[in-house]
Amino acid sequence: MLKRLLTPLYIALSLLCALSLNAQAKQVATTYQFPLTNAFEASIAGTPSALRPALPDDADIRQRDYSLRLRPEREFTLPSNFWPVKTFHYRLAKQSGPAPLIFIIAGTGAHYSSNTTEYLKKLFYGAGFHVAQISSPTAYDFMVGASRYATPGYSPQDARDLYTVMQAIKKQQRTLQVTDWHLTGYSLGGLQAAFVSHLDEQEQSFNFKRVLLLNPPVNLYTSVNNLSRLVHTQVVGTSETRTFYQLMLDKLTRYFNSKGRFDFSEAMLFDLQNSSQKLNQNELAMLIGSAFRFFSADINFTSDLINRRGIITPPQQKINDGTNLTPFFKRALLCDFECYLQEQLLPFWHSHFNNQQATQVAADNADLERLIQASSLYALTDYLSSSKKIGVMHNADDIILGQGDLGFLKQHFAERLTLYPYGGHLGNLDYLDNAADILEFFHE
Amino acid sequence: MNKPPLLRRYWAASALLLALSQQSWAQTIDPDGFKNPLQQLEFNSALKQHEFERATLEALNISDPLEQWNRRVYHFNYRFDQWVFLPIVKGYTKVTPHFLRTGVSSFFSHLGEIPTLANSLLQLKGHRAMETTARILFNTIFGIGGIWDPASKMGLAKNSEDFGQTLGYYGVPSGPYLMLPLLGPSNVRDTSGIVADYTLDFTVNWLNVAKESERHPEIFALKIVDQRYITKLRYGQMNSPFEYEKIRYAYTKSRELKIAE
Q1: What 3-state DSSP class applies to A104?
Q2: Is residue B56 situated within a structural domain?
C-alpha cells in the first residue's frame, strides 16, 4: 500500500528534480547504473571489467608508432639523456580501406599510449575509424619533441602546437584514405580539443566533422587548484612518524597477507576497496593529488631546462646519461603547479603574448586573470554556443570542476552536453553506457 | 528486551554528535547539479601540512652508491630494448601463433616452479610449498611437461618465491640498488639470489632442460625472448624525465611487499 503511494510520488519528484536541474542538458537514462558513486574511488579504479564494452584485441589492430622530426635544433642543444624523446612519436591505427580518422588528445601529462588513450583507440577502431593518438602538450615527450616554447598551460599556444603536429601527421600519412576528420580529447585534452577546433575554423586543414570534449576543465585554474588542494587532505595523524606512502604500503602488506598472495592488478584494486584495508576518501584524494604533483614536477623540470631559465637546473649544469638528476627532481617536486604558473608560465606569457603595457605593481594579478580567461573555455564562449559540431560529456561529481562550471556548460552547450550523475573524473569513460554514447555522438 | 532509557538517550546523543562531526560528509548539490565532491574531504585546516613533500623526499632516499653506473646501464638497457630486444619480440609474435607462445610461456613458467618450491621450503611456508608441489605434479602429468597450465584452472594459483626473497625473509638487507645489464632493476641481495636460483636450476635439471640448454643454446635464447615477451615493462612508458628514480622506488617497494607477504 505504502509502496503504491510512494512510487508515483517518487517518480514525480525525481522528474521534477530532473527537469529543474537538467533544464537543457541531454537526458541520461534514469537507468544509468554506474556502480561507483564515490567520485574519488571512481576516478582511481575506473569501471569494473564486467561492465566495460567488448573491444578489439591489440593483435587484431593494424597499428604502429611513427616518428616526426619537429624540433631538430633540440637534438643538439639538449643533453644526451633526452635521447628517447628528441624525435616526436605518435601512434596510428589504420583500417584496411577508406575510413574517417579521429585524433585523440591525451590528458594532463599523459603519453599517447596511456590506458585511457588506448581504451579510446580500441573503442573507435572497433567502430571503423582510423585512430591517431597524440600525447598531451603537458607531457614530457610532447614538450621536448613538438612544443615550440615548451611552456604548456596557455591553451591557444598548446592548440597551435597540437595543430602543427596534426598537420604533420596528415602530411606523413597522405596515402591514407580519410573520408572525414574527427577530434576528441579527455580531461585537459578535451579543453585543448575545443581550442584546436576553433583554430581549424580559421586554418581549414581538417574541417572537423564532430568534436567531442570528454570531462574537460571549464576554468583551467579551478581544475589546477582542485588537484593541487588534494595533497592537503588529512591523511596522517600528528603523532604518526610513518609517511603517507609508508601508511599505504603497510595497508597493502596487511591486505596481501590476508589474501596469502601477492598480485597487483586492477581486480585487486576493487577487492582492496572491499576489504578491511580499504583506503578512505582522504587517502584516495591524496593519491590523485600526488600523481598531479609528479606531473607538475616533470613539467617544471622540462620547461625550465629546455628554456634554460635556471630555476630548477643551473644553466651551466653539464648533464649526460650518468648524471644524478635526483637533486633537480627534488627541487621540481617542491614547486607545485601554482608555483610553475608564477615562476615560468606567467613571465613567459607576459613577454610573448601579452602586448598590453601595464605598470608592474598591479600587473601581476591582472596578468593572471587574463591568462586564466584566455586559457579556459570562457575564451571560446561564442564559438561553443554556435558550433553544432562540438559536444561535451561530463560528470556531476567530477573533481576537476568548480561551482558554476556545469551551469556554464548547460548554458552554452545546451542539448550538446551529456551529463552523468556519477563517475568522478573519467571513471565512467569505459562504462558500457558511456561507450555507446561516445560512439553515437560520432555516428549522428 | 528493553534497553534502559539512559543508554538509549546516550545512543541518540552520540548519534547526533557523530552526525555533527561528520558534517562535511553531508553532500549539498548546487542548483546546476554539481555535487562538488571536494566538500566531502577533510582538509588539513591550516594548509600547512607538507605531507606530500615529507613523504616524497623520504621515498627518494634509496641507497644507490653506484648511481652513475646504474644510470648508464639504464640508458643502455633502454636503447638495447628499443633497437634489439623489442624488434625480436615483435618478430617472435609475428611468426608464432598465439597458442604456441602461451605454451612456451607455460613451459618456462613451469620450470620456474622449482626455485619457488625450494624457496617456499626454505622460508618454512608449508602451505605454499604444498600448493607448488601440486602444481608441478598436475602440470607435468596433465599439462604434458608444463606446456599447459591445468593447475591454475583447478584453482591452484601460481606463487613466486626466489632466493632473494628468502634472504629478505631472514632479514638480509637489500644492499645497494643495482641496474643489471639486460636484466633490469635489482639490488645486491637479489642479484646473489638470481645466481643461487640459477645454480639450483642447473643442479636439479628438471625435465633435463638445464643440461640440454648447454648443448642447445637456442633453448636458452627462447627462454630469454619469452621472458621479454611476458614482461609488460617498457622503458619510457612512465614518460617522465625521472623514470630512473621511479623505477628504483617501485622495484624496491614491490620487493619489500613480496618479502613481507
Answers
A1: strand
A2: no
